[in-house]
Each structure stands twice: as C-alpha cells, then as structure tokens.
C-alpha cells in the first residue's frame, strides 16, 4: 500500500493525497495553523479511515452471517492529548446498524469481531487511545 501527499503551495496548508489505488483526497489545516478550512484536517481523515474500516467489517460479517443488513453508520467521538504529539487518547464508536430482523447479539458480535480481530485502523489507534463501542440496532 502506498500514497503520495503533496503540499499545494499557493493554497495555504492544503495537501493533496493520491492513493495507490488512484484516488485523490484533499486535506487542510485550521485557520490558526495557516490553513483555510477548505478540506478535512489530517487527523479527521484518520478518524474517517477508522470508521470506514470498522463499518466495512461489520457489514461484511453480518452479510456473511446471512443477516439482512441495510445500513451501517458509525459516529465517532474522539479526545486528543493536550500536548504534542496530540494523539487520540479516547474514542467512542457508536454503531447504528439497520436491517430486517437483525438480532442485537449478532450486531454486537460483528462489532466486537471488528474491534478485536479485523480492523487494522482501530487496532493502531488502540495503541494510544481507549476505545469503547456502543451499538444501536434499528429496523429497516
């Protein structure tokens, strides 16, 4: 896996990342740090990646279990250290999973498997942050 990140010199602190799979992602800094708030912050993109990684796992696990999952949303609340490096110190991942006749235990198991076994992103973040999860199951 690879990517390239380039600073767009005439745009404040905008960075353009190109992934190995050929996709482009823009990032920017906060105005107080020289950015212009034109795109997500780099640390926000880290959270987005973790949310996408774990949501992918949960949906795939439920589908493989032949559950009729129709939606999955992960709302992440994060806390960061107050001194540099301002790593994440606490994360709560709130899963809202919808489907037809989805059993709560199956969804909780899928979330636990993602967190404990499959999600590389939360495994890395768990090195500096306490990670908690909550689950809400909604009918389709």
UniProtKB/TrEMBL annotation:
It comes from the Bacteria. This is OsmC family protein.
């Amino acid at each position: 896996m690879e990517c390239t990140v380039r600073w767009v010199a005439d745009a404040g602190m905008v960075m353009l990342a190109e992934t190995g799979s050929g996709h482009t992602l823009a990032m920017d800094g906060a105005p107080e740090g020289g950015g212009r708030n034109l795109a997500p912050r780099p640390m926000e993109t880290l959270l987005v990646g973790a949310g996408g990684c774990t949501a992918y796992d949960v949906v795939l696990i439920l589908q493989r279990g032949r559950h009729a999952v129709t939606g999955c949303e992960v709302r992440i609340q994060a806390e960061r250290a107050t001194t540099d490096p301002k790593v994440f110190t606490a994360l709560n991942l709130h899963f809202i999973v919808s489907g037809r006749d989805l059993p709560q235990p199956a969804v909780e198991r899928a979330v636990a498997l993602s967190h404990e076994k499959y999600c590389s992103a939360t495994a890395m973040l768990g090195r500096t942050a306490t990670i908690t999860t909550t689950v809400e199951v909604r009918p389709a």
